[in-house]
Design goal:
alpha+beta, Gyrase A, domain 2, 3 domains, six-stranded mixed sheet, six-stranded antiparallel barrel
Length: 397
């Protein structure tokens, strides 16, 4: 049964078009306004509130908490300092990614772990022999993303304290309207932003406090359609869209190592602790590396225009991101596929993420992407470009 979010009392009245989708068993707004463009503009030009409570959340605590985190993730957990947050994948024994998410160190012996898919059983299986407690806090903890160039101003107005000293991927406790919460400088938009973690019973009060404090900064609620465009501009991957969890893969082709989805930089094969999948990942590197790679693509506008003109049409590109896998060609054959893409309002370009053979990973590689207009298939040029597509200095400043 699909359930509501702790913020439902506030988000439901705002969803004028009743555009809902299911996210991990919860209702999530696709868009609140008549068009999601205004919500996207809030993310990029002002401030937006995005309900991310459906994320699976776990509290890992105890004397061996560090040992468990280190045993599961590909990064060195011993180097995570109190107050730090890291983004990381974790793999199965074959070196294929199970999921990706964040791990925040709350104190010397406890961590908050987020994931897109349920991970309680996986964590408990890997905790065997360790003195550690794993508590699922998905339903008891509400999560709200405050994103956009004015997000810091909104947060400072709500808390009455400065936040310019909280560095990127750091966290600290805070109080808003008498409520205790945790604030991390993280997000899924590629912009300046924060994520607020609060007891589910305080969710409505937190929403009200932020909306009141943010009124002077044009804060507004944003849904999943706007978030999808923003995360693509930031070059951020999405589970079951840009890659398939090893847990859900039906054939070997559907399983991906971190090196195949742009997360190789987050693998520390030399860390002291052994972790699940390390031997397989070492073999992959010793064999020459991943045979397919994640790339950013810019589509050729002249080619797009020509395909529409051939049907007597002007180019009409959807404002919403697409998630269909689309073939990519080079040298007269298919060499991969685009996994998701969008028209970028801020870049004024059509962009996409793609999975391609390693030989076509270098920036500047020229590919052809299949594109259909009025039922007629054609191909447009696509050039490999660096990721992320959009990376404003304010994100880290």
């Amino acid at each position: 049964m699909t359930l509501g979010s702790p913020f439902d009392a506030r988000t439901r009245p705002l969803n004028a078009k009743r555009q809902w989708r299911e996210w991990a068993g919860s209702f999530a707004a696709s868009a609140y306004a008549a068009s999601h463009d205004i919500e996207y503009n809030a993310i990029r030009n002002a401030a937006a509130l995005i309900d991310v409570s459906p994320l699976f959340k776990y509290l890992v605590s105890g004397p061996d908490a560090v040992a468990l985190v280190d045993r599961v993730i590909t990064r060195d957990a011993a180097r995570i300092r109190v107050g730090q947050v890291i983004y990381t994948p974790w793999c199965d024994e074959y070196g294929k990614v199970v999921d990706d998410g964040t791990v925040a160190r709350l104190d010397e012996t406890s961590f908050r772990w987020t994931a897109a898919d349920p991970q309680l059983r996986w964590l408990r299986l890997n905790a065997r022999g360790l003195d550690v407690a794993i508590e699922e806090i998905t339903d008891s903890t509400a999560a709200l993303a405050l994103q956009g160039p004015l997000s810091r101003a909104v947060l400072e107005a709500a808390t009455g304290e400065t936040w310019s000293d909280l560095r990127y991927y750091r966290r600290r406790a805070a109080r808003i309207a008498g409520m205790d919460l945790d604030v991390s400088r993280t997000g899924y938009t590629g912009d300046l932003g924060y994520e607020l973690w609060v007891d589910a019973g305080d969710a409505t009060r937190l929403w009200d406090a932020l909306m009141e404090a943010g009124a002077a900064f044009a804060v507004r609620a944003a849904g999943m359609l706007a978030l999808d465009v923003a995360r693509l501009e930031a070059g951020l991957i999405l589970l079951e869209v840009d890659y398939t969890s090893a847990r859900h893969a039906l054939i070997p082709e559907q399983s991906y190592s971190p090196y195949e989805i742009g997360l190789g930089r987050l693998v520390d094969l030399d860390k002291p602790a052994r972790f699940v999948g390390r031997a397989a990942l070492r073999r992959e590197i010793d064999a020459g590396g991943a045979r397919r790679r994640l790339v950013g693509l810019e589509l050729d506008w002249e080619d797009l225009d020509a395909l529409y003109a051939a049907q007597g049409l002007s180019p009409v590109l959807s404002a919403a991101a697409w998630r269909e896998h689309v073939p990519l060609y080079a040298s007269g054959r298919q060499i991969g596929r685009a996994t998701s893409g969008t028209w970028s309002p801020i870049l004024k370009k059509s962009i996409a993420l793609g999975s391609v053979e390693a030989a076509y990973e270098p920036v500047g590689s020229r590919l052809r992407l299949e594109w259909t207009v009025e039922g007629r298939r054609g191909r447009v040029g696509a050039r490999v470009v660096p990721l992320p597509f959009f990376d404003p200095p304010r994100k880290r400043a």
